[in-house]
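ok here's Carbamate kinase:
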Amino acid sequence: MGKRIVVALGGNAILTDDPSASAQAKALQQTAEQLMPLIKDNDVEMVVTHGNGPQVGNLLLQQLESDSDKNPAMPLDTAVAMTQGEIGYWMLQAFTAALNHNDMSDVPLVSVITRTVVDPADEAFDNPTKPIGPFYTESEATLIKAQYPEWKMIEDSGRGYRRVVASPLPLKIVEAKAIKPLLDASALVTVCGGGGIPVIESDTGYEGVEAVIDKDFSASKLAELVEADELVILTSVGDVFLNFGKPNQQALGTVSVSDMRSYLNQGLFAAGSMKPKVAAAVSFVENTGKKATITSLDNVENFVKHGSGTCIIPD
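and the structure:
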């Protein structure tokens, strides 16, 4: 068995300024090609997870626009499942092309619809924080709020206003046991789209709930469950920074997990961007004693060749 890694893709790997299906599929073609250095030597088993915040938000808007007694809008958990299916399809198409281009057409591919168990008593249900869907101006957000008063809208990182929904922590990936044999067969697997379909345990199995789970936390939990050797979180920047965007910003290279936990506890990372990624990576290292890396998609080749990026290691 080769090295096993779980790769978490950021939203920039899928959605460009054009939200059309063709544009998103094209973006993923480039993403798949950029990931090939991770597996080109045929000694790495790779699981790929991805976000779906923009896609599920846009789909919900489409659902609401056509909502009627004869054609009722689907709930949020079903919308997450629908976007898992569409993005999974685009990813299969993109990885097929990339594998063929790199003379690895014998690598089997599969996309797995994935359910993620959450706690119904999670405080996140009382305090929605996860942005989904498009950005709105302040005036547009006011109109949206008047139309859907139950929605919570927040200003997001200076880029506009977005709807936010509950984002409970993942407790278990239901399909994890089924994913491990696929990896043992050297398949390239895409799973946990948008963090997975949020479900709670019930007397008959599982019941869907209205939430969107953070994809980095789900990737961390999945990496634990499939016994990955490393978690790799790909974002828009090559390193994690202290004092990001300030004159004294400092890029972090190799950092002990205790030091990174201390930085987290001091509130040194932005809540809407780097904080959840760092928290997910720290959780994986603390729970497994293995390393996690945060870097950019554009930096993958340098990461493979030189180990660049921010690497969190056990104490």
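+1. The mean pLDDT is 91.
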